Amino acid sequence: MDSFFTRYRNLLVLLAVLLAQIIGLAVQVRRTDSGRNSLDPRDAAGVRLIRLWADAVVTPPEQIFHATKLGVASLWLNYIDLRHIREQNQDLQKTVDRLRLEQASLLEDARQGERLQALLNFQQKYLYKTLAAQAIGSSGNDSSRVFYLDKGSADGLDRDMAVITPEGIVGKVREVYPHSAQVLAINDQTSGAGVILESTRTRGILRGDAAGRPQIIGILADQRIQPGEKVLTAGGDMVFPRGLPVGEVVRVTPDPDRDSFIDVTVKPAARLDQLDEVLVITSTEPHFSAEQQQDMATSEVLKGAEVTAIKEQKTASQIMAERLPGLADPNAPPPANPQPGHDQVEPSAASAPSAPKLLHPQHPDRFTPGAKPQPPQGEETSAPAHAGRNP
Amino acid sequence: MSLLGADYRRDLGIRSYPLLVYALAPLAALVLQAWLPRVMHGYAWFDLPLVVIVYFALARRDPIQGTMMGAGMGIFEDALTHHAIGANGIAKTVAGFLAGSVGARIDVDNFIIRMMMTFLLSLLSGVMYVIIFRVLLGLNMEWRGLEELMKAVGSSLAAMVLFPLLDWTQIRD
Questions:
Q1: Where are the domains of chain A?
Q2: Which residues of B touch A29 (CB under 8 A)?
Q3: Which of B31, B84, B147 sits opposite A29 (nearest CB)?
Q4: Are strands A181-185 and A169-176 parallel, antiparallel or unpaired?
Q5: Which site from A22, A149, A195, A311 is most exposed, i.e. has the minimal number of CB atoms within 10 Å?
């Protein structure tokens, strides 16, 4: 037995290591309701711990490399690349003279640009709260299009936050570590972003293919979808806010697996393979400046006072309406059909909306219109006295 | 016969390195593999961890060391992706085992042989990675033969630079 283990020691070690990893893989895969296998989007505690360790090992050197790269670039731009500055200065002086002439014509455009810039700044400040971060590393694997940011949970990042650039969307935060975060790019095969085509208003899901090209899959064939059409976020995926630029359509091809469906290849607006600085949307709640918040508070106070005044006015009207006598009694029973010969008249009959009719007086007298005065005997004494008070 | 020959060469040719090299070389390979693709904008067609695994497995001529180093670095690489941990580990484990086994049987000082080994094991690792995903896990992953081929070529070119550097660090009697 001892010689068996000695002789096949290498193979036994190999099998043991392979077996352990296969069991580990089996734990991470689950079968969905549709009968297909998929990886659990939420890592188990053990898997997350391994990822955390790996990230803790890789991120500090990556941050040093990134800082070194920036330092070298700065050194190049600020010193080495300035050796021919005198010659360039003369050329620049000539350029300045020429530009002064152009300045007048460009002044109006500049003012317009300033206005547009102010609008853009307002929009950016108004909409979402964002956090700038640097892309410092990647997975190092072509089939896993994730990259790492130099900000983590300590900076307020959380899972499923949208990552964007001014050009367009980039991806979403998949995993967060204390001082770094893993971002799943929109061109990964396992990503999914709800998008909408700008002009045809066709909705679909954007994900990457094996080569890292974003595609909108599973949409019905539509002749109107043409290359060049803009693609925007649809806002239904609970990650990306609605209306952010995604890219533009570059190719429309039939779906190889399903008839009457097409795959739309999209050129991403953001340069996904050359990312340096990105913005992470940390809150989709409207983010207002201090002045805007003050204005809104004032507006709310005024609005509240107006609403209160309207309510008080309504309450007063209701009270007045209840106190004043009305023609209709809401508590009265339904009107009975008047019987000829009966003198009893229901009160509601007087309030009927039809043309008013003359009521039959219970005791007609001489003042009754169209009736001859025939006073009854029982009221003979009182009627003249009552009538005598009338003018 | 082959075992005797392997033992004979093992006794003669096992290389030793400072402990710092054992620790730093794999770490540097992993960090660079994660960082360089960001700098090279998607043209990082090489697998530095595999180069290091192949180098140490060949130099140490020990399949078990190759297996353990392949498993460790493969799992580390998996941990940096969003895929299942173990797919790259298995592929690199097999690559390390084969490199160590071959190193015990052939002359690994030959530069061409080491380059060929790196090329073939890089291709094998790529194929195994896709097979594990599609067959073992039942997940979708497309096979990109051209890119794997370029990656194997790139790894061989990286080996041309790294192998002499690592040879320089070995302990000489």
A1: 39-100
A2: 84, 137-139
A3: B84
A4: antiparallel
A5: A311
List the alpha helices (DSSP H) in chain A. Answer: 2-7, 9-28, 45-78, 85-127, 290-323, 347-350, 382-389
Residue B148: closest C-alpha in chain A: A142
Query: From CA A130, how far away is CA A293, in angstroms rounded?
Result: 18
Which residues numbered 23-42 in B keep a CB inside 8 Å of some CB on A? 27, 30-31, 33-39, 41-42
Contacts of B136 (CB under 8 A, 6+ apart): A22, A25
Higher-pLDDT residue of B81, A218: B81
HSE of A33, CA atoms in CB hemisphere, 13 A: 0
Which residues of chain A carry a pLDDT beneath 70? 1-2, 80-83, 101, 104-105, 108, 111-112, 115-127, 285-289, 292, 322-391
Find, in chain B, the residue whose alpha carbon is nearest to that of A66: B35
Six-digit token string for A39 = 């990886």
pLDDT over 90 for what percent of chain B?
53
* B-chain residues near A69 (CB < 8 A): 39
Token couple for A338: 């008047």
Q: In this complex, do B80 and A39 lie within 8 Å of one another by their Cβ atoms?
A: no
Distances (CA, A) of A125 to A22, A245, A280, A286, A355: 50, 17, 14, 9, 67
- The H or E element spanning position A182 is strand A181-185
- State how far the Cα of A316 lies from the Cα of A323, in Å rounded to an integer: 11
pTM across the whole model: 0.65
Measured distance CA(B71)–CA(A50) in Å, rounded: 14
pLDDT in tens, A216-254: 987 888 888 889 999 999 887 888 888 889 999 999 988
- Residue A246: what are its φ and ψ, rounded to 5°? -110, -45
Using the beta-carbon criterion (under 8 Å), do A25 and B79 form an inter-chain contact?
no
Asked if the C-beta of B4 comes within 8 angstroms of chain A's C-beta atoms, the answer is no
